[in-house]
Design brief:
about 200 residues; globular
C-alpha cells in the first residue's frame, strides 16, 4: 500500500496550515484510493529539533518522524510563511533529514499566509529546497491566503489539480493535461459534442 506522509509546520491551534494540509490529504486520498497515511506535526518537535541542532543526536520522537518521511512513497508538505519564506521550524526539519532521504520522492508543496502577496513563496523558496534534495516536486503548488478559505472554488480547483499531479507522479493516473497524440485521437476520437463544448469555453 502506498505510504503518504503529511508534514505540517503550523504553529497555531487551530492552524490554517494544518487545515490546508488536511484538504490536500483528502484530495490525495480521493485520487489514490486507500493509502497508509501518517501526519507529522512539527510544532511538538520544536524542542527535539533544537536539541538535535545543538547535540547532533535525534531524540526518539524526531527520529521516528524522520524515519517516516524517509520511508514515504509520497509527501505532502505545508508551511506557514514567515518573513517571505517557509518557517524556520520547517527548514530545520528538512535540514536535519538524512541527505539522500528524499531522492526521487514525489512531493506536493503547500503554504499559507495572511495575504496573497506571499504566494510566490512556494516557487522561490520551497521548490528550490526540494529540488536541492532531489525530490520530484509536483508542478502545481498550493498557496492559500486567509481569504482563500472563504472563497472556495479556486482553492478547491488547485488542490484537486495538485493531487492529480501527485497521483500521476506515482503512476496512478495519466499525466494531467497532457495533450493527446494524433495516434490516440485516431484510435479513440473525441466526440464532436465535447469538441464543441471546449470551443465554447
Amino acid at each position: 500500500m502506498t505510504r503518504v506522509v503529511v508534514v505540517s509546520a503550523g504553529l497555531g491551534v487551530p492552524s490554517s496550515t494544518r487545515l490546508l494540509a488536511d484538504r490536500l490529504t483528502e484530495a490525495v486520498v480521493r485520487e489514490l484510493g486507500p493509502v497508509e497515511l501518517e501526519v507529522v506535526e512539527l510544532r511538538p518537535l520544536a524542542r527535539p529539533l533544537a536539541d538535535h541542532l545543538l547535540t547532533g543526536f535525534a531524540g526518539p520522537e524526531l527520529q521516528a518522524a524522520h524515519d517516516a518521511v524517509a520511508a514515504a512513497d509520497a509527501l505532502v508538505v505545508v508551511s506557514p510563511v514567515f518573513a517571505a519564506s517557509y518557517s524556520g521550524l520547517f527548514k530545520m526539519f528538512f535540514d536535519l533529514l538524512p541527505r539522500d532521504a528524499l531522492i526521487g520522492t514525489p512531493v506536493l508543496l503547500g503554504a499559507t499566509a495572511g495575504s496573497a502577496r506571499h504566494s510566490l513563496v512556494v516557487d522561490h523558496a520551497m521548490r528550490p529546497l526540494f529540488s536541492y534534495l532531489r525530490a520530484l516536486v509536483v508542478p502545481t503548488a498550493v498557496f492559500a491566503a486567509t481569504d482563500d478559505f472563504g472563497s472556495d472554488a479556486d482553492l478547491s480547483g488547485r488542490i484537486t489539480r495538485a493531487a492529480r499531479e501527485l497521483a500521476a507522479l506515482l503512476g496512478r493516473r495519466p499525466a494531467v493535461n497532457r495533450p493527446r497524440s494524433v495516434e490516440e485521437e485516431l484510435e479513440d476520437p473525441t466526440p464532436f459534442e465535447e469538441l464543441m463544448r471546449r470551443a465554447g469555453g
